[in-house]
Amino acid sequence: MDLEVLAQLIGVESRTIEKCEAELGLLGGLPGRPGEVRPRVEWLLRKLGGSQAKVEGYERDGVRLKKVLGREF
Fold first, then answer.
1. How far apart, in whole angstroms, are the C-alpha atoms of residue 50 and residue 20?
2. Domains in the chain: boundaries
């Protein structure tokens, strides 16, 4: 994988995180926070956590790739 692909993947996951955070904000602002939204909140939190883990992995891959490229060039 090259650095450009990693940057694109990080962008995709960052947008997913932003969307999840925005929806969680909306749901958190509902009066009384009805129990019906709990499954949605839990799903959003799992999705957000998965995207965050992917971003961290892509960033680690990028650091390793930069080290390899630095040694070779």
1. 11
2. 3-72
Over residues 8-51, the pLDDT tens digits come to: 999 999 999 999 999 999 999 988 878 889 999 999 999 999 99
The model's pLDDT over 49-68, given as tens digits with 9 standing for 90+, comes to: 999 999 999 999 999 999 98
Cβ contact 25:52 at 8 Å: no
Return d(Cα 51, Cα 63) in angstroms, integer. 18
CA-to-CA distance for 60 and 9, rounded, in angstroms? 13
Q: What is the DSSP string of 13-62?
A: HHHHHHHHHHHHHHHHTSTT--GGGHHHHHHHHHHHHHHHHHHHHHHHHH
